[in-house]
Protein backbone atom coordinates (compact mmCIF):
# COMPACT_ATOMS: atom_id res chain seq x y z
CA UNK A 1 0.00 0.00 0.00
CA UNK A 2 1.39 3.38 -1.03
CA UNK A 3 0.15 6.48 0.80
CA UNK A 4 0.75 10.09 -0.24
CA UNK A 5 0.52 12.72 2.50
CA UNK A 6 0.06 16.18 1.00
CA UNK A 7 -0.79 18.59 3.81
CA UNK A 8 -0.88 22.36 3.84
CA UNK A 9 -0.16 24.23 7.07
CA UNK A 10 -2.40 23.97 10.15
CA UNK A 11 -2.40 27.67 10.95
CA UNK A 12 -0.87 28.54 14.35
CA UNK A 13 -0.37 24.82 15.09
CA UNK A 14 2.11 23.27 12.62
CA UNK A 15 3.57 23.97 9.22
CA UNK A 16 3.16 21.72 6.20
CA UNK A 17 6.52 19.99 6.72
CA UNK A 18 5.66 19.16 10.33
CA UNK A 19 2.20 17.87 9.44
CA UNK A 20 3.54 15.56 6.74
CA UNK A 21 6.35 14.27 8.97
CA UNK A 22 3.99 13.62 11.89
CA UNK A 23 1.53 11.78 9.66
CA UNK A 24 4.30 9.69 8.11
CA UNK A 25 5.66 8.64 11.51
CA UNK A 26 2.20 7.74 12.82
CA UNK A 27 1.33 5.73 9.71
CA UNK A 28 4.53 3.70 9.84
CA UNK A 29 3.82 2.85 13.47
CA UNK A 30 0.47 1.46 12.39
CA UNK A 31 1.63 -0.06 9.09
CA UNK A 32 5.44 -0.48 9.06
CA UNK A 33 5.50 -2.24 5.71
CA UNK A 34 3.56 0.41 3.78
CA UNK A 35 5.23 2.87 1.42
CA UNK A 36 4.86 6.58 2.22
CA UNK A 37 5.51 9.69 0.12
CA UNK A 38 5.21 13.21 1.53
CA UNK A 39 4.55 16.42 -0.39
CA UNK A 40 4.15 19.51 1.83
CA UNK A 41 1.98 22.12 0.13
CA UNK A 42 2.08 25.89 -0.28
CA UNK A 43 0.41 28.27 -2.71
CA UNK A 44 2.54 31.37 -2.21
CA UNK A 45 2.14 31.90 1.53
CA UNK A 46 3.89 30.46 4.55
CA UNK A 47 6.25 27.61 3.65
CA UNK A 48 6.56 28.60 -0.01
CA UNK A 49 10.31 29.24 0.11
CA UNK A 50 11.21 26.12 2.09
CA UNK A 51 8.98 23.80 0.06
CA UNK A 52 10.17 24.91 -3.37
CA UNK A 53 13.83 25.19 -2.39
CA UNK A 54 14.04 21.86 -0.57
CA UNK A 55 12.25 20.06 -3.39
CA UNK A 56 15.14 20.83 -5.76
CA UNK A 57 17.88 20.52 -3.10
CA UNK A 58 18.60 24.21 -3.23
CA UNK A 59 20.24 26.52 -0.72
CA UNK A 60 18.36 28.34 2.05
CA UNK A 61 20.00 31.55 3.29
CA UNK A 62 18.98 33.88 6.10
CA UNK A 63 19.31 37.64 5.71
CA UNK A 64 18.91 40.57 8.14
CA UNK A 65 16.14 42.84 6.89
CA UNK A 66 13.64 45.46 8.02
CA UNK A 67 10.39 43.86 9.08
CA UNK A 68 6.81 44.94 8.35
CA UNK A 69 6.76 47.50 11.16
CA UNK A 70 10.37 48.63 10.65
CA UNK A 71 11.67 46.20 13.26
CA UNK A 72 14.93 44.30 12.68
CA UNK A 73 14.19 40.82 11.38
CA UNK A 74 15.88 37.86 9.73
CA UNK A 75 14.18 36.30 6.73
CA UNK A 76 14.95 33.21 4.71
CA UNK A 77 15.18 33.05 0.95
CA UNK A 78 16.21 30.21 -1.34
CA UNK A 79 18.29 29.62 -4.44
CA UNK A 80 17.91 26.69 -6.80
CA UNK A 81 19.88 25.70 -9.88
CA UNK A 82 17.83 26.64 -12.95
CA UNK A 83 18.89 23.37 -14.59
CA UNK A 84 16.99 21.43 -11.90
CA UNK A 85 13.70 23.28 -12.38
CA UNK A 86 11.11 20.92 -13.91
CA UNK A 87 10.48 21.40 -17.63
CA UNK A 88 6.76 22.00 -16.95
CA UNK A 89 7.63 24.98 -14.73
CA UNK A 90 10.08 26.42 -17.27
CA UNK A 91 7.40 26.16 -19.92
CA UNK A 92 4.76 27.73 -17.66
CA UNK A 93 6.90 30.71 -16.70
CA UNK A 94 9.37 30.99 -19.53
CA UNK A 95 12.22 30.65 -17.03
CA UNK A 96 15.82 30.80 -18.17
CA UNK A 97 17.73 27.51 -18.18
CA UNK A 98 20.85 28.99 -16.61
CA UNK A 99 22.00 30.51 -13.35
CA UNK A 100 20.24 30.57 -10.00
CA UNK A 101 16.52 31.04 -9.44
CA UNK A 102 15.75 32.98 -6.26
CA UNK A 103 12.74 31.89 -4.19
CA UNK A 104 11.32 34.67 -2.00
CA UNK A 105 8.39 34.44 0.39
CA UNK A 106 6.69 37.67 1.37
CA UNK A 107 5.38 36.05 4.56
CA UNK A 108 9.01 35.72 5.69
CA UNK A 109 9.91 39.37 5.18
CA UNK A 110 6.66 41.32 5.48
CA UNK A 111 4.33 38.79 7.04
CA UNK A 112 1.23 39.17 9.16
CA UNK A 113 2.18 36.38 11.54
CA UNK A 114 5.27 38.33 12.63
CA UNK A 115 2.97 40.91 14.27
CA UNK A 116 0.85 40.20 17.38
CA UNK A 117 -2.85 40.36 16.55
CA UNK A 118 -3.50 43.49 18.62
CA UNK A 119 -0.60 45.36 16.99
CA UNK A 120 -1.53 44.79 13.35
CA UNK A 121 -2.00 48.06 11.46
CA UNK A 122 -1.48 48.53 7.70
CA UNK A 123 -1.06 52.30 8.16
CA UNK A 124 2.40 51.61 9.61
CA UNK A 125 3.31 48.42 7.70
CA UNK A 126 5.81 48.28 4.84
CA UNK A 127 6.94 45.75 2.25
CA UNK A 128 10.49 47.17 2.39
CA UNK A 129 11.93 43.88 3.69
CA UNK A 130 10.54 42.01 0.71
CA UNK A 131 12.27 44.55 -1.51
CA UNK A 132 15.52 43.93 0.35
CA UNK A 133 15.32 40.23 -0.53
CA UNK A 134 14.63 41.14 -4.18
CA UNK A 135 17.69 43.41 -4.05
CA UNK A 136 19.76 40.60 -2.55
CA UNK A 137 18.74 38.24 -5.34
CA UNK A 138 19.68 40.85 -7.95
CA UNK A 139 23.04 41.53 -6.31
CA UNK A 140 24.06 37.87 -6.37
CA UNK A 141 23.13 37.63 -10.03
CA UNK A 142 19.97 35.53 -9.88
CA UNK A 143 18.58 34.94 -13.36
CA UNK A 144 14.96 35.10 -12.13
CA UNK A 145 12.93 35.59 -8.95
CA UNK A 146 9.87 33.61 -7.93
CA UNK A 147 7.96 35.53 -5.28
CA UNK A 148 5.18 34.08 -3.14
CA UNK A 149 2.97 36.83 -1.75
CA UNK A 150 0.56 35.12 0.65
CA UNK A 151 0.33 36.07 4.31
CA UNK A 152 1.40 39.71 4.00
CA UNK A 153 0.89 42.33 6.71
CA UNK A 154 0.87 45.23 4.28
CA UNK A 155 -1.45 47.28 2.11
CA UNK A 156 1.23 49.55 0.66
CA UNK A 157 1.09 48.87 -3.11
CA UNK A 158 4.56 47.40 -2.80
CA UNK A 159 5.95 50.92 -2.40
CA UNK A 160 8.21 49.74 0.40
CA UNK A 161 9.65 47.02 -1.84
CA UNK A 162 10.11 49.49 -4.69
CA UNK A 163 11.85 51.91 -2.35
CA UNK A 164 14.37 49.16 -1.57
CA UNK A 165 15.24 48.77 -5.26
CA UNK A 166 15.51 52.35 -6.46
CA UNK A 167 12.28 54.33 -6.10
CA UNK A 168 12.47 57.58 -4.12
CA UNK A 169 9.54 59.35 -2.48
CA UNK A 170 9.99 63.08 -1.95
CA UNK A 171 8.27 65.48 0.46
CA UNK A 172 7.21 69.07 -0.30
CA UNK A 173 10.80 70.28 0.20
CA UNK A 174 11.98 67.71 -2.37
CA UNK A 175 13.82 65.84 0.36
CA UNK A 176 13.91 62.06 0.11
CA UNK A 177 11.69 60.22 2.59
CA UNK A 178 12.98 56.95 4.05
CA UNK A 179 10.93 53.85 4.88
CA UNK A 180 7.65 55.41 3.88
CA UNK A 181 4.51 53.71 5.22
CA UNK A 182 0.91 54.49 4.15
CA UNK A 183 0.47 56.86 7.10
CA UNK A 184 3.13 59.06 5.46
CA UNK A 185 1.64 59.09 1.96
CA UNK A 186 -0.09 62.43 2.55
CA UNK A 187 3.37 63.99 2.83
CA UNK A 188 4.61 62.58 -0.51
CA UNK A 189 4.90 65.34 -3.10
CA UNK A 190 6.39 63.38 -6.00
CA UNK A 191 8.31 60.28 -7.00
CA UNK A 192 11.87 60.11 -8.31
CA UNK A 193 14.53 57.58 -9.20
CA UNK A 194 14.48 54.41 -11.26
CA UNK A 195 14.29 50.71 -10.56
CA UNK A 196 17.70 49.07 -10.54
CA UNK A 197 18.47 47.85 -14.07
CA UNK A 198 19.88 44.53 -12.83
CA UNK A 199 16.63 43.38 -11.22
CA UNK A 200 15.93 40.03 -12.94
CA UNK A 201 12.49 38.94 -14.19
CA UNK A 202 10.02 38.54 -11.31
CA UNK A 203 7.28 35.91 -11.31
CA UNK A 204 4.64 36.34 -8.61
CA UNK A 205 2.88 33.20 -7.38
CA UNK A 206 -0.64 34.27 -6.55
CA UNK A 207 -4.08 32.65 -6.62
CA UNK A 208 -5.99 35.77 -5.56
CA UNK A 209 -8.05 37.42 -8.31
CA UNK A 210 -9.04 40.67 -6.55
CA UNK A 211 -8.62 43.97 -8.41
CA UNK A 212 -6.80 46.79 -6.67
CA UNK A 213 -9.75 48.99 -5.71
CA UNK A 214 -13.47 48.78 -4.97
CA UNK A 215 -15.62 46.39 -2.92
CA UNK A 216 -13.52 43.41 -4.00
CA UNK A 217 -10.20 45.25 -3.75
CA UNK A 218 -7.23 45.04 -1.44
CA UNK A 219 -8.53 47.46 1.19
CA UNK A 220 -12.14 46.28 1.37
CA UNK A 221 -11.46 42.55 1.38
CA UNK A 222 -8.15 42.23 3.20
CA UNK A 223 -7.97 45.40 5.29
CA UNK A 224 -9.81 44.01 8.33
CA UNK A 225 -7.60 40.92 8.68
CA UNK A 226 -4.50 43.14 8.53
CA UNK A 227 -5.77 45.35 11.34
CA UNK A 228 -7.52 48.17 9.47
CA UNK A 229 -10.34 49.71 11.50
CA UNK A 230 -13.79 49.94 9.82
CA UNK A 231 -13.81 53.70 10.39
CA UNK A 232 -10.60 54.03 8.35
CA UNK A 233 -11.70 52.04 5.31
CA UNK A 234 -12.92 54.93 3.15
CA UNK A 235 -9.93 57.15 3.98
CA UNK A 236 -7.48 54.34 3.29
CA UNK A 237 -9.17 53.42 0.00
CA UNK A 238 -8.97 57.01 -1.21
CA UNK A 239 -5.29 57.40 -0.30
CA UNK A 240 -4.55 53.97 -1.77
CA UNK A 241 -6.19 54.86 -5.09
CA UNK A 242 -4.45 58.23 -5.35
CA UNK A 243 -1.03 56.69 -4.77
CA UNK A 244 -1.76 53.94 -7.30
CA UNK A 245 -2.56 56.58 -9.92
CA UNK A 246 0.68 58.37 -9.08
CA UNK A 247 2.60 55.12 -9.58
CA UNK A 248 0.94 54.54 -12.95
CA UNK A 249 1.81 58.05 -14.07
CA UNK A 250 5.42 57.85 -12.91
CA UNK A 251 6.09 54.52 -14.66
CA UNK A 252 4.07 55.41 -17.74
CA UNK A 253 1.45 52.68 -17.31
CA UNK A 254 -2.28 52.81 -17.99
CA UNK A 255 -4.62 53.06 -15.01
CA UNK A 256 -6.36 49.95 -16.29
CA UNK A 257 -3.54 48.07 -14.52
CA UNK A 258 -5.51 48.69 -11.32
CA UNK A 259 -8.39 46.59 -12.62
CA UNK A 260 -6.34 43.55 -13.54
CA UNK A 261 -7.24 40.32 -11.69
CA UNK A 262 -4.75 39.84 -8.87
CA UNK A 263 -3.71 43.51 -8.68
CA UNK A 264 -5.13 43.67 -5.16
CA UNK A 265 -3.22 40.65 -3.85
CA UNK A 266 -0.92 41.07 -0.85
CA UNK A 267 -1.82 44.70 -0.29
CA UNK A 268 -1.22 45.59 -3.92
CA UNK A 269 2.44 44.54 -4.15
CA UNK A 270 1.47 42.59 -7.25
CA UNK A 271 0.27 45.86 -8.78
CA UNK A 272 3.38 47.80 -7.74
CA UNK A 273 5.85 45.22 -9.03
CA UNK A 274 3.89 44.78 -12.25
CA UNK A 275 3.81 48.52 -12.95
CA UNK A 276 7.43 49.17 -11.98
CA UNK A 277 9.19 45.91 -12.91
CA UNK A 278 6.84 44.23 -15.40
CA UNK A 279 6.44 41.34 -12.96
CA UNK A 280 4.27 38.49 -14.18
CA UNK A 281 1.53 36.87 -12.09
CA UNK A 282 1.30 33.08 -12.19
CA UNK A 283 -1.21 30.76 -10.46
CA UNK A 284 0.40 29.84 -7.16
CA UNK A 285 -0.84 26.30 -6.72
CA UNK A 286 -0.40 25.45 -10.40
CA UNK A 287 3.23 26.46 -10.00
CA UNK A 288 3.69 24.36 -6.86
CA UNK A 289 1.89 21.40 -8.44
CA UNK A 290 4.23 21.44 -11.44
CA UNK A 291 7.30 22.13 -9.29
CA UNK A 292 6.57 19.13 -7.03
CA UNK A 293 5.24 16.93 -9.88
CA UNK A 294 2.13 16.29 -7.80
CA UNK A 295 0.12 14.72 -10.61
CA UNK A 296 2.72 11.98 -10.91
CA UNK A 297 2.91 11.51 -7.14
CA UNK A 298 -0.89 11.15 -7.02
CA UNK A 299 -0.87 8.64 -9.88
CA UNK A 300 1.72 6.50 -8.07
CA UNK A 301 -0.18 6.41 -4.74
CA UNK A 302 -3.00 4.08 -3.73
CA UNK A 303 -4.49 6.61 -1.32
CA UNK A 304 -3.96 10.35 -0.95
CA UNK A 305 -4.33 12.17 2.38
CA UNK A 306 -4.53 15.95 2.41
CA UNK A 307 -5.76 18.66 4.75
CA UNK A 308 -5.10 21.88 6.64
CA UNK A 309 -6.20 23.64 9.80
CA UNK A 310 -9.64 24.57 8.47
CA UNK A 311 -11.10 22.90 5.41
CA UNK A 312 -13.99 25.00 4.11
CA UNK A 313 -15.51 26.26 0.89
CA UNK A 314 -12.45 28.43 0.19
CA UNK A 315 -10.31 25.27 0.25
CA UNK A 316 -12.07 24.14 -2.92
CA UNK A 317 -11.40 27.44 -4.70
CA UNK A 318 -7.78 27.09 -5.72
CA UNK A 319 -6.11 26.29 -2.38
CA UNK A 320 -3.72 23.38 -2.12
CA UNK A 321 -5.82 20.67 -0.43
CA UNK A 322 -8.85 21.44 -2.60
CA UNK A 323 -6.72 21.28 -5.74
CA UNK A 324 -5.30 17.94 -4.57
CA UNK A 325 -8.84 16.59 -4.22
CA UNK A 326 -9.77 17.76 -7.71
CA UNK A 327 -6.77 15.93 -9.13
CA UNK A 328 -7.49 12.75 -7.14
CA UNK A 329 -11.07 12.85 -8.44
CA UNK A 330 -9.82 13.34 -12.00
CA UNK A 331 -7.56 10.31 -11.63
CA UNK A 332 -10.25 8.27 -9.84
CA UNK A 333 -8.13 7.90 -6.71
CA UNK A 334 -9.49 7.57 -3.16
CA UNK A 335 -8.61 10.38 -0.79
CA UNK A 336 -8.97 11.45 2.82
CA UNK A 337 -9.16 14.96 4.25
CA UNK A 338 -7.76 15.41 7.76
CA UNK A 339 -8.33 18.86 9.20
CA UNK A 340 -8.82 20.61 12.49
CA UNK A 341 -12.23 21.73 11.26
CA UNK A 342 -14.22 20.58 8.23
CA UNK A 343 -17.01 22.99 7.35
CA UNK A 344 -20.45 21.50 7.80
CA UNK A 345 -22.19 20.66 4.54
CA UNK A 346 -19.10 20.88 2.36
CA UNK A 347 -19.24 18.43 -0.54
CA UNK A 348 -16.17 16.28 -1.05
CA UNK A 349 -15.49 14.25 -4.21
CA UNK A 350 -17.16 10.81 -4.35
CA UNK A 351 -14.05 8.87 -3.36
CA UNK A 352 -13.00 11.31 -0.60
CA UNK A 353 -13.86 11.12 3.08
CA UNK A 354 -13.32 13.61 5.89
CA UNK A 355 -11.73 13.16 9.31
CA UNK A 356 -11.89 15.93 11.92
CA UNK A 357 -8.91 15.84 14.27
CA UNK A 358 -10.31 17.33 17.48
CA UNK A 359 -13.19 16.01 19.60
CA UNK A 360 -16.32 18.17 19.49
CA UNK A 361 -15.76 19.48 23.04
CA UNK A 362 -12.36 21.00 22.17
CA UNK A 363 -12.02 24.76 21.94
CA UNK A 364 -10.21 26.28 18.98
CA UNK A 365 -7.32 27.22 21.26
CA UNK A 366 -6.99 23.69 22.61
CA UNK A 367 -7.21 22.20 19.11
CA UNK A 368 -4.37 24.45 17.97
CA UNK A 369 -2.23 23.71 21.02
CA UNK A 370 -2.74 19.94 20.69
CA UNK A 371 -2.75 19.87 16.89
CA UNK A 372 0.37 17.76 16.45
CA UNK A 373 -0.79 15.13 18.94
CA UNK A 374 -4.28 15.08 17.45
CA UNK A 375 -2.97 14.55 13.91
CA UNK A 376 -0.67 11.71 15.00
CA UNK A 377 -3.51 10.07 16.94
CA UNK A 378 -5.99 10.35 14.06
CA UNK A 379 -3.58 8.93 11.48
CA UNK A 380 -2.73 5.99 13.75
CA UNK A 381 -6.42 5.31 14.50
CA UNK A 382 -7.51 5.46 10.86
CA UNK A 383 -4.76 3.26 9.48
CA UNK A 384 -4.46 0.71 12.28
CA UNK A 385 -8.02 -0.55 11.71
Short description:
The chain is an alpha/beta fold. The chain has helices at residues 16-30, 48-55, 87-93, 106-110, 128-139, 159-164, 218-222, 233-251, 269-277, 284-292, 294-300, 320-331, 364-369, 371-384, and strands at residues 2-7, 35-38, 59-66, 72-81, 100-105, 144-148, 167-170, 176-177, 190-193, 202-205, 280-282, 303-307, 310-311, 335-339, 341-342, 352-356.
Oligomer: single chain
Structural class, judged by helices and strands?
A: alpha/beta
Rg, alpha carbons: 21 Å
Ends distance: 14 Å
What's the pLDDT, averaged over the residues?
94
Summed up, the helix count is 14
Beta-strand fraction estimate: 15-25%
H/E element sequence:
EHEHEEHEHHEHEEEEHHHEHHEEHEEEHH
Task: Give the tally of β-strands.
Answer: 16
Which consecutive residue ranges, at least 5 long each, have pLDDT under 50? none
C-alpha geometry? globular
